[in-house]
Structure formats: structure tokens, C-alpha cells
Write a structure and sequence with these properties.
The chain contains 1 helix and 5 strands. The protein is of the alpha+beta class and about 70 residues long.
Length: about 70
């Protein structure tokens, strides 16, 4: 399951406008978060999960994604 995080690759030295792109990593956890009064559950990789923690977004639940056999 692909991570549903959105990132802006590059740096301030990147020429031209930076665009938002969906994270290419595999989701390892289903995060239930509250943003703008709405609760939503989405898959996240470890980096995007840490970004959510660092941003202060309210995490209601984090459930590991089980590997399919």
C-alpha cells in the first residue's frame, strides 16, 4: 500500500516553482488524524509519519499495516 503523504522535493535552490508530489514509499502504518475538524485514516511511511508528528497534527490512532501473505 503506497504512502499517502505529499511532499515538495527539492530545496530553495531548485530552479522554477516546486510542485507537490505523492510520496513514493510503501505505507507501514495507518494513521488516523484530525485536520481542519475532519478525521481521516491514511497509510503513511516512517518518514511521513515523523513529519506528521513534527508538524503537531493530532494523531488519534496509529495501526501497523499487516503484510499480506
Amino acid at each position: 500500500m503506497r504512502c499517502e503523504g505529499w511532499i515538495r522535493p527539492g530545496s530553495f535552490m531548485t530552479l522554477g516553482p516546486r510542485k507537490w508530489e505523492q510520496c513514493e514509499n510503501t505505507g507501514i502504518v495507518l494513521l488516523t488524524v484530525v485536520q481542519e475538524g475532519k478525521e481521516e485514516t491514511l497509510p503513511a511511511c516512517s518518514k511521513c509519519w515523523q513529519d506528521v508528528i513534527d508538524s503537531g497534527i493530532e494523531i488519534v490512532k496509529a495501526e501497523p499495516i499487516k503484510e499480506q501473505k
